[in-house]
Amino acid sequence: MSIYDFTVLSDSGADVCLSEYRGKVLLVVNTATGCGFTPQYAGLQELYVKYKERGFEILDFPCNQFLNQAPGTDEEIGSFCVLRYGTTFPRFKKIDVNGKNASPLYQWLKTRAGGVFGNDVKWNFTKFLIGRDGEVAARFSPVKTPASIESELERLL
């Protein structure tokens, strides 16, 4: 099984087969609009612009599980990200990343990558870097800025 075997919901509710991203390097991020790490959207957008033409995509999954820091509808979250940070990378429907209602994608990501303190995602802006083969290549904590993972990204591109 690889990331390409999953189907997720776009922010408008349409099914998106992740096989659409086959052969690309992906950065999967659980995000929030009201978090101390929210300014990382700017760094994510910079990486996206810099590397998109080389086969890089960012998959943004808003998550409200950490102190309700992603309030609002999917439409409101999308508007905030576009207006405040100019994001152009794909955004998906708000999901849970932990617990009994965790997205199957995140269940798979966590078992593939683990974490310093176990499998659970500990906070917003945890990042999973996926190689062109659809497998998890690295997991980064929220404190790792987008710029700080650029060398890992370049290695996979």
Could you explain the architecture of this structure?
Helix content is 26%, strand content 18%. It has 157 residues and is of the alpha+beta class. It has one domain (3-156): Glutaredoxin. The longest helix has 12 residues, at 40-51.
Brief rundown of the structure:
The chain has four helices and six strands; from the N terminus they run E-E-E-H-E-H-H-E-E-H.
Query: Counting H and I runs of at least 4 residues, what is the number of helices?
Result: 4
Q: What is the number of E strands?
A: 6
The CATH architecture:
3-Layer(aba) Sandwich
Mean pLDDT over the full residue set: 95
Rounded Rg: 14 Å
Strand order of the largest sheet: 4-3-5-6
Instruction: Give the domain tally.
Output: 1
CATH homology-level superfamily: Glutaredoxin
CATH class: Alpha Beta
**For this entry, what is the oligomeric state of its chains?**
single chain
Which topology does CATH recognise?
Answer: Glutaredoxin
Helix content: 25-40%
The SSE string, one letter per element, is: EEEHEHHEEH
Structural class by secondary-structure content: alpha+beta
Basic shape: globular
Alpha carbon gap, first and last residue: 22 Å
Tell me the strand percentage band.
15-25%
Query: pLDDT under 50 segments (min length 5)?
Result: none
Topology:
Blueprint: E1 7-9, E2 15-17, E3 25-31, H1 40-51, E4 56-62, H2 74-85, H3 104-113, E5 127-130, E6 136-140, H4 150-156
Parallel strand pairs: 3-4
Antiparallel strand pairs: 1-2, 3-5, 5-6
Tag the structure with descriptive keywords.
two-stranded antiparallel ribbon; 157 residues; globular; single chain; alpha+beta; 6 strands; 4-stranded mixed β-sheet; 4 helices; Glutaredoxin
